[in-house]
Amino acid sequence: MNNGIDEGKVSFFLSTWVFLNIYCEPLLLDSFTFDDYLQALQFSSDEIDCDLFVEIHCALLKAIVNEQGVIQAQLPDPEEEEEEEEESDEEEDGSSTGSAEDTVRVNGDRMETEEDGEKSRAKSEDRERSHRADELFEDSDGWIQRLKVRDFKNGGWQAIVVGVLYRLSVDDRYSKDCEEILKHLTPVDEEPALESVRRRYLTLDINLRATVLHLLSRLTHETRSVRDYMEECSEEMTKHRKDKIEVQRARRDLISELKMLDDERKILLPENTPRSPSPAAASRQASTDADGDSKMTGADEEDLDGDDDEDGDDTDRGRSLRRGDERANERKRKREAEREKADAAAKLPKTSKQFQKVLKTIESVKAKIAKQEEKIASFDEDLRQADCARFRMMGRDRFWNRYWWFERNGMPFGGLPQSSTAFAGYANAMIWVQGPDPSEREGFLVEEAGTKWASEEGSDMRMKMNGSKDGRMTVLERQALEESSTILTSPTQYGYIDTVEEFEQMLSWLDIKGVREKKLKQQFEEYRKHIEEGMVNRKKYLAGESEGAPEKESGPTRMNTRGKAHIDPGVWRCLNWTNETMIDERGHTHFEQPQPRKAGKKKGGAQDKGVPLNRQGKPVSRQGDRYNF
Questions:
Q1: Are 166 and 153 in contact (CB under 8 A)?
Q2: What pLDDT is recorded for position 272?
Q3: What is the rounded CA–CA span in Å between residue 414 and residue 429?
Q4: For residue 606, what are the contacts with CB-CB under 8 A and spacing of at least 6?
Q5: What is the overall mean pLDDT for the chain?
Q6: Its GO biological process terms (predicted)?
Q7: Is 510's pLDDT higher than 60?
Q8: Mean pLDDT, to the nearest integer, of 135-149?
Q9: DSSP state of 101
Q10: Phi then psi for 318, rounded to 5 degrees?
């Protein structure tokens, strides 16, 4: 998208957003959309602070060190690393000891002494030194003391980040990323200070910012607060499962009762309710009535004609008499039908109460079953939101691409309902497609020479599966044909689907004859309503057409004292976010946490002389027999 994001860092953006939204409750953070998160990492201003960007850092740092100053995460111990280096140096010194002639090394035609070697080593150390993070604090644990008292203002939290990264750089797993960040925040050619670190953090690259949050999130994931939250969610899931089993058992009993009642209704129905004629019989009856009416009309006309014609013969009277019998039979049939209806109506009231009672009972049982199903759906939703230990993948397609929808578990659909940006109606609203693992690619996609697929014997199989007439189309060729320019070749590459039209095209592309794609399509069909709703809401939110958006003043709520600038919150939507969760819980944000009061100091032995002290710990002046406070 040409937005400055490195392809290899996309997983950092996604993983940190997922972590912060799943564990937003123990971190006391409002949930936020993925688009606002990207904007917050891109936003940089020396005059205005982005609450979303600042609160994320402060919340993660507070989880690493508690208010008692105890480190909750597993940080490497620098003293142990120094001891190991000293031991390795001693071993090297011991192995290099020898005679006096060994202190002089021959390098071509030039002689090099030990003194020259020490100078060269000092120069190499200066060249290798890329930052001055160790000089930012007088004590190596200075950042811990500052974090203990929650001193985040005036470059405080940026300096604490430097302390954490410097401590983490000892570990070989994180040394490369930490060194790159520390090189920018505390360069060698500049004296490290709180103000300089704060200014240089404003110019930190977006990929390095995502790396910082990724490292802090990994440390926070090991803390006691997150672990306690996971255990609490696990206990809730166990309770929900037990309650769900009881509700399912009650629902099963109600279904059995409903079946018995339906059988009773069928037994009572033919005895107490007259059978309604079938559609064919009704049509025949209607035609018969029409014919009878026409015959009666014709007979009447002929009778009238016979009365007027005095010269009529006996044959006409015979025909009229036969028609008279037909009319008498028709009247008899009508009387019998009315008598049957009357008899049925007379019998119906005797047992209709029992039949109506069965019908009412059936409706009551159906309503109870519906309530039980609502409870089961509620338990399923609670289980989905409490499932925070591991994020679940949607599935894989025929080319072993992984599909992710980051609202599937661990969080409510659309984020927390009480969030300051809950009116957006979505959290991520994109289907993310991750490339295959190298082992999957080499084992299933890339064809090696001499294998069954590459041999002539496998041409028939290739022709059958790939649809090629000559049987020469490989899996990679088929992938290039179907995916065109969006081929993903490694797990560091991601693609996404963010519109309803593209999502429906993807569903139609999936083949249910395959095992993987059948399961994948079933997962998408299960959450299809929520996925499409989120995509529609995201489109409205980015266009500024979301319903229920609160009216806010232009610019954020907190500004620095260096000046004021007008930044349109409609363009920078991340500025509309506020940490309502922390404010409702503690009455303040993470950044603006009040500092603890300092104990009063003794000055001039005032306390020893019996002079009282004021609230600031200063001695009060005495006027006569009274103290002037």
A1: no
A2: 44
A3: 8
A4: 613, 619
A5: 78
A6: subtelomeric heterochromatin formation
A7: yes
A8: 90
A9: G
A10: -60, -45
The 10s digit of each residue's pLDDT in 227-246 is 999 999 999 999 999 999 99
- Write the pLDDT tens digit of every residue in 156-209: 999 999 999 999 999 999 999 999 999 999 999 999 999 999 999 999 999 999
Give CA separation, 10 vs 13, 32, 420, 480, in Å. Answer: 5, 18, 26, 23
- What residue type is assigned to position 475 of the chain? V
* Tokens (6 digits) for 411: 């969080």
SS3 content of the chain, % helix, strand, coil (to 5): 60, 5, 35
Contact 164, 151 (CB under 8 A): no
In contact, 433 and 399? CB cutoff 8 Å: no
- The residue whose two tokens read 């929900």 is 240
The angle, 0 to 180 degrees and rounded to 10, between the axes of the packed helices 156-168 and 194-202 is 90
What's the CA gap between 309 and 301, in Å, rounded? 12
pLDDT of residue 613: 52
d(CA 174, CA 181): 11
Span 524-528, mean pLDDT? Answer: 95
**Cα separation of 370 and 378, whole Å?**
12
Closest by CA to 396, choosing from 429, 357, 444, 364, is 444
User: Which secondary structure element, helix H or strand E, spans residue 186, and what is its range?
Assistant: none
Contact 587, 581 (CB under 8 A): no
Q: In one letter, which amino acid is 581? A: T
**Residue 213: φ, ψ to 5°:** -65, -30
What 3 state SS string does 444-469 have? Answer: HHCCCCCCCCCCHHHHHHHHHHHCCC
DSSP calls for 393-443: P-EE-TT--EEE-TTSSSS-TTS-TTSTTGGG--S---EEEEPPPHHHIII
pLDDT reported for residue 312: 45
**What is the predicted pLDDT for the residue at 564?**
43
Q: Alpha helices of 186-310 — where are they, by DSSP H?
A: 194-202, 206-221, 224-272, 279-308
Backbone angles phi, psi at 149, to 5 degrees: -90, 5
Answer whether residue 320 shows pLDDT above 70. no
Answer yes or no: is pLDDT of 333 > 70. Answer: yes
Alpha helices (H) in 49-189, listed in sequence order:
51-64, 78-96, 114-128, 142-148, 156-168, 175-185
CA–CA gap between residue 131 and residue 121 (Å, rounded): 18
- CA 327, distance to chain mean position in Å, is 80
Q: Which amino acid is at 496?
A: Y
Which residues, at least 6 apart from 352, have a Cβ–Cβ distance to it below 8 Å?
272
The CA–CA distances, whole Å, from 514 to 397, 398, 465, 510, 525 equal 9, 8, 11, 9, 16
Is the CB of residue 207 less than 8 Å from the CB of residue 42?
no
| Residues 574-620: tens digit of each pLDDT | 999 999 999 999 999 999 988 776 655 444 444 444 555 554 455 55
Dihedral of CA atoms 282, 283, 288, 294 in degrees, nearest 10, equals 130
Q: How far apart are CA 244 and CA 499, in angstroms?
A: 35
Q: Binning pLDDT at 50, 70 and 90, where does residue 449 land?
A: very low
Q: Is the pLDDT of residue 464 over 60?
A: no
What is the mean predicted confidence (pLDDT) over 256-284? Answer: 69
Would you place residue 51 in the very low, low, confident or very high pLDDT band (cuts 50, 70, 90)? very high
Among 19, 12, 68, smallest CA distance to 41 is for 12
